[in-house]
Amino acid sequence: MPQLNPDPWFFIMLSSWLTYSMIIQPKILAFITMNPPSSKAPTTLKTTPWIWPWT
């Protein structure tokens, strides 16, 4: 059964993961986010109830 033989695909999988983790991932993580997280506490807005004219 050739599906159980890891020789043809194991080296390709290993080299692709090493390429991803060593080359591509640091380049992706080096990008600066456009909206950095802020340290402000979330503010809650005080809402007033809607007064319906027919009640």
Number of strands: 0
Termini separation comes to 78 Å
Q: Tell me roughly what share of residues is in helical segments.
A: 40-55%
The proportion of strand residues reads under 5%
Mean pLDDT: 81
Round the Cα radius of gyration to an integer and report it: 27 Å
Strand/helix succession: H
Q: Indicate the overall shape.
A: elongated
Quaternary state reads single chain
What's the helix count? 1
Low-pLDDT segments, ≥5 res: none
Describe this structure in words.
The protein is 42% helix and 0% strand. The protein is mostly helical and 55 residues long. The model has no long low-confidence stretch (mean pLDDT 81). The protein has one helix and no strands. It has one helix spanning 7-29. It is elongated and about 80 Å long.
Q: What is the secondary structure topology, with strand pairs?
A:
Blueprint: H1 7-29
Task: Write out key terms for the chains shown.
55 residues, mainly alpha, 1 helix, ATPase_protein_8, ATP8_metazoa, CF(0), transmembrane, ion transport
Short description:
With 55 residues, this protein is mainly alpha-helical. The protein has one helix at residues 7-29.
